[in-house]
Amino acid sequence: MKIKLRKFVTLIFIFCSIFLTSCTYEKNNNLLSKVNNIKLKLIWQNNIGKNNVSFKKLNPYYSKGFLYLANKNGFIYCINIKTGKVVWSLNLINKSCFFSSCKYEYFTVGPIISNNYLYVGNKQGKIFSINIKNKSIIWKQNIFNEILSNFVIRKNILIVHSMDDILQGLDKNNGRILWTVHLGHSNSLSIKGLSDPVLFFDNVIIGSDNGLVSSRIVTNGLLVWEQNLLRMNNKENFININDIDISPVIYKGIVYVSSYNGNFMAINLSTGDIIWEKIYFTHKNFIINHNIIYLIDPLNRILALNVKNGNLIWIIDKFKNNKINNLFIYNKKIFFTNNRGFLYWIDLNTGIFLGKKKIDKYKIHYILVIKNQLVIQTIYNKIYLFKILTV
C-alpha cells in the first residue's frame, strides 16, 4: 500500500512539474512575442527612374529632410522624405550621346553629400560635384579608372577607391587630386568590386584585391601599417581569390576584416598587429553589436561570433534556401532581406525567428535606417518608406 502511495505521489509531482514548466514556458513565450512583435506601416512609395540598379554602390543618401538617389542612366533625384515626392531631378549624362557610348557614362557610385554639395561617380572614372541648392555642376574630375566603392569625406578631402586598386584623395571644393596611392598589384583572378574606405579620425582603413588591408593618413595617403590576409586554403589548388571587397568594420579600437578566401581577422587599429584569425567565409558586409559579430555565409546561414576571440556563438540555417542580404540591427532585432522581396527579423541574442513582411515582388537592393523609419530600395529603383511600430 505504501509503495502504491509513493508511486501516486511521485506521479502527481511529475505532473505538477510538467504543468508548471509548461505554464512558465507559455508565459515566457507570450512575453517574448509581445516584446518583439513589430509592425511596419507604409508611409509612401515611389518609382524612381524605373531602371535596374546594376551597380551595388548606387544607394540612397539622407540629409536634412531630403533623400538623394542616383540611377545608372545619369539621373539624380531629390525626394522629400515626408511625402515621397520628387523635389527636383537632374540628368548629368550628355543627352546627345549614342547608346553605345553612353554605357561608359553610367553612374556606379553615390551620391554622398557634404554641406550643400553632392558627389557621384561613373563607370568612366569621372566624378561630379553638384550644388544641391541650384543644381549647378561645380566641378568634374577624371581619375584613373571605373569607380566601384563608396566615397568618404574627411577634412575637405574626398577619398576615392577605383579599379586596379588606386586610392586617391581629392579636394572636395575644386576636384584637384591631392594624392594618389597604388595599393598593390591584383591577382590574375579577381572579383569585380572594391572595398569601401572606412574612416577613423584622420586615418582611412582600406582593403585591396591582393588581400592587403592598410591604414593610411587621410591628408596625404601615407602608409601607417599594412597587414596581409593572403592564405592558401588548399595547397593542391593554385587558384585563390584573395579580394577584400567587404568593408572593414572598426569596433572598440579593433579592425575586423574578411577576404574572399575565408580569412577573417581582428587587427589592432593602432599597430596593425593580428589579434586573432579564423576561417569564416562571407562575401557580404557584416555588422557588430554589443561584442557580437553577425555575418552571412555563402550557404545563407547567419553566424554570431565573439569579437574577443572569433569563436562561434550560434548559427541559424533556417534561411539557407533563400539568398539573404542587408543585415542591420534595430531595437534588439536583426533585420535582413531575401531575393524575393521579403524583410525578416530575428531575436538579436538567440536568432529565434520573430517575423517577416513582403515588401515587393523584386529583390531588395538596399535599406537605409533613419531613426524609426526604413527607406527600402528595390533592384528596379522602387522606393518605399516604412515606419517601424512596436505593438
So how many helices? 2
| Strand content range | over 45%
End-to-end distance, in Å?
56 Å
The main sheet orders its strands as 2-7-8-9-10
> What summary fits the major beta sheet?
5 strands, mixed
Helix/strand-derived category reads: mainly beta
Radius of gyration: 25 Å
- Principal-axis shape: globular
Residue windows where pLDDT falls under 50 for at least 5 positions: 1-35, 233-239
The overall average pLDDT, rounded, is 83
Helix content: under 10%
Number of strands: 33
Structure, described:
The protein is mostly beta strands and 391 residues long. The protein contains 2 helices and 33 strands. The strands form 8 sheets. It has a 5-stranded mixed beta sheet, with no helix packed on it. It has a 4-stranded antiparallel beta sheet with strand order 1-33-32-31, with no helix packed on it. Strand 27 and strand 28 form a beta hairpin. The longest helix has 35 residues, at 2-36. It starts with a helix and ends with a strand.
Please supply descriptive tags for the structure shown above.
391 residues, mainly beta, five-stranded mixed sheet, four-stranded antiparallel sheet, 2 helices, 33 strands, globular, disordered N terminus
Which SSEs are present, and which pair or pack?
Elements: H1 2-36, E1 38-47, E2 57-58, E3 61-63, E4 66-70, E5 75-80, E6 86-91, H2 99-102, E7 107-114, E8 117-122, E9 126-131, E10 137-142, E11 152-154, E12 157-162, E13 166-171, E14 177-182, E15 198-200, E16 203-207, E17 212-217, E18 223-228, E19 249-251, E20 254-258, E21 263-268, E22 274-279, E23 287-289, E24 292-296, E25 302-306, E26 312-316, E27 325-330, E28 333-337, E29 342-347, E30 353-358, E31 364-370, E32 373-378, E33 382-390
Parallel strand pairs: 2-7
Antiparallel strand pairs: 1-33, 3-4, 4-5, 5-6, 7-8, 8-9, 9-10, 11-12, 12-13, 13-14, 15-16, 16-17, 17-18, 19-20, 20-21, 21-22, 23-24, 24-25, 25-26, 27-28, 28-29, 29-30, 31-32, 32-33
